[in-house]
Amino acid sequence: MKTEKSTSNIRHRRNAVLGAAFLMATSAIGPGFLTQTAVFTQNLAASFGFVILLSILLDIGAQLNIWRIIAVSERKAQDIANLVFPGAGYFLAVLIVMGGLAFNIGNVGGAGLGLNILTGVSPETGAVISAVIAIGIFIVKEAGSVMDRFAQMMGFIMIALTTYVAFRSHPPVGEAVIRTFVPEALDPIAIVTLVGGTVGGYITFAGAHRLLDAGIKGPSALPDVSRSSVSAILIASVMRIVLFLAVLGVVSQGVMLDPKNPAVTPFQHVAGSFGAIIFGVVIWAASITSVVGAAYTSVSFISGFNKQIEANRNKWIIGFIIVSTAVLVTVGRPAQVLVFVGALNGLILPIALALILLAAYRSQIVGNYRHPKILAVIGWTVAVLMAVLSAQTLVKYISTLAG
C-alpha cells in the first residue's frame, strides 16, 4: 500500500514538473510569438539565429532566479514583492493582470483565426468556441492536471507540425549555424521582443506558480524546480528555432511573407492548401494554450489578496476568459492598447526580477537559503539590460503613437 502511494506521489511530481514547463512554454508560444518570429527572420535572415541564442541565455538567467526564489520562499511573486517593498506586490499584480488581459484578447483572436482556417466558421465564432474549450478545462475537478496534460499535448503537436514544415522548406542550415555565432546584423528591439515575449509579463510566473499549487516547493524541491525552469525555456526555444528555420527556408528563396499574416507563408509555400490547414492547427494550439496560461497566471496574482477569490479561483479564471472573449467579439483587437501594453510588458521583467533578487537576501523571506552568486550576477545583468532596452523600446512606441 505504501509502495503504491509512493509511486503515485512520484508520478504526480514528475507530471507536475513537466506540466509546469509546458504551461510556461506554451504560454509563451502564442499568435504574437509566431508573427514576431516570422517578421524578424525576414528582416535579419540567418542572423536572427544570434538573437534567438542571446534571448535563450537571457531567458534562462531570468527564469532560474525567479523560479528558485519563488520555490524556496514558498510564496507567490506578488507576496514576495510586498515583503520587499510594501505595496510593490499590488503594483506588480496590476501590471500582470493588465498585460494578461490585453494579450488574452489577442490570444482568443488567434484561436478564432485558427478555427476559421480549419472549419470556415467566422473568427468571432471560432473565438467563442475556443473560449468554451478553455473554460471546460477549469470546470473539471482536477483542473490543474488537465491543464498540464493539455499544455503538453498541444506543445508536442505544434513542434511536430512546424518541424515538418521546416524540413520541407530546405533552410540553409549551415549559414544559420554560422550567423548564430557571427551575425551580420543585430536588432536590439528584436532582443527585447523575444525576451519579453518568452519570459516577460505573466509568462515567466506561469510555471513557477503552477509548481507552488502542485506542492513542489521548499529548498528540497530546487533540483526539480531548476530542471523544470530550464526545460520550459528549451521547449519554447525549440519551437522558435524550427519556425525560424521554416521561415528562413522560404525567404532565402526570395519568397515574400504575407504582410497580413507573415507566419502562414512558409506553411502554404511548402504544402499549399494542406499547409494552410497545418498552420490553422498550429496557431489554434498556440493560441488556446496561451489563453489558458494567461488566465491561470493572471488570476494567481490576485487570488492571494482575497480569501473569496482564492476559494473560487477557477470561477475567476473562467470569468477572465469570458471577459477577454467578450472584448474581442464586441470591440475587436484594440491595436493601440495591445502595442502599448506589449511595450509595457517588457518593463515588467526587470521590475519583477529586481524585486525577486532583492528578496533572495531577506532571511524572513528565504530563511537560511543562500542564493548562488553567479545566478545573482546573471539576474542583475539581465534586469539592467532589459530595463535599458525596454525603456528605449517603450519611448519609441510612445513616439510612434504620438506621431
From TrEMBL:
Cell compartments where the protein resides: Membrane
Primary localisation category: membrane
Ranges that cross the membrane: 44-62, 83-105, 117-138, 150-169, 189-208, 229-251, 271-296, 316-332, 338-361, 373-395
Alphabetically ordered keywords of this record: Membrane, Transmembrane, Transmembrane helix
Membrane topology annotation: Multi-pass membrane protein
InterPro entries: NRAMP_fam
A Pfam family annotated for this UniProt entry: Nramp
Database matches in PANTHER family: SOLUTE CARRIER PROTEIN FAMILY 11 MEMBER (PTHR11706), TRANSPORTER PROTEIN (PTHR11706:SF2)
Name the UniProt record assigns to this protein: Divalent metal cation transporter
Organism: Exercitatus varius
